[in-house]
Amino acid sequence: MSTLKMFFHPAVQAFLHSGFVxxxxxxxxxxxxxSTQTPMKLLERQKGVVKLIVEEPDDLWYLYMIISQNDHCTxxxxxxxxxxxxxxxxxxxxxxxxxxxSVEKSEFSRHTGQLRITGKVxxxxxxxxxxxxxxxxxxxxxxxxxxxxxxxxxxxxxxxESLQSSGNVLIVLFDREHALFATLRPSGxxxxxxxxxxxxxxxxxxGKQHAFYKDIAKHIDTFLERFDPKHIVLAxxxxxxxxxxxxxxxxxxxRRIFTTTSTVDExxxxxxxxxxxxxxxxxxxxxxRELELLEKIMASLAKDRLAYGIADVRNxxxxxxxxxxxxxxxxxxxxxxxxxxxxxxxxxxxxQNVGARVHLLASEETIRxxxxxxxxxxxxxx
Length: 382
Fold this sequence. Notes:
Order of helices and strands: HHEEHEEEEEHEEEHEHHEHHEHEHHEHE
Radius of gyration: 25 Å
Shape: globular
Oligomer: single chain
């Protein structure tokens, strides 16, 4: 069990160190955490139109990456109506209406978990004036119809990615006195919990050591119930693996993948994800794919075969000398705020037209590196 400051009666200390309390503590802390990832639900697909239900916050990020200026979005929204006219004191009431807008801008906040799409009303409820400006606030549970005159390959790719559940991955880094629990999200890893065990002196009270691994196993079972991960990656330096393996439940054993790590901290997660033995198992994970792409980008930079920054990438596209380009969320947000996104979108289309694959980046580490290179890079063919 993790170390607790001992200011209590010995009987209370024993209770606090019990496995039951560890399990209850985890449930209380993570009661409001994300549960099993559910892919965005596709209700209908027609020529140019998709009808969707947003299932989780990550879906909002995908929509933000997909929706562009002049697209048509239909959804339910609240609209204010003035009741009364002339000398009669008017009363303002809100009603739910369905409207279709021609998109002029979109805003996404990870903090509030809300996507706001703003544009001119072109259809829907007759009560809402055509040509007036209106916003659709999209959250989990919202239904949305999206029409594009032309779907680009990278937009199709993003849509298909959002409709497929990649399955959660639970990562546990541990040694004889520390353990770190994390999960993978499209935007990278999220640290869930760290615990510290009592390290017994050699040959003295070895039971404390076994209790620590039992504690790790109980937390793993808690996260199994909470997240239902497809894989459980267990990484440790040295030979601590065998101690934990003895304590794992049958459910955990059926999903576990053991590997090694040099340290037990957040900086080691990237090292673990790039281990060769995990490549195939984690191939469906977006964060994993972006780390592999980042390795490829940095190798191209070392060989002087990388275009970076908008001007440099544009020149390489003009020469037909790109096999892949990568664009960060940061640059996309910046261009939308500056109302110059059409320029960036045209560049991505041109790259696609010369056979380059377009990647829209989401993971924090990848974004941080590529932002340092101008927010957009291209891997050259020669």
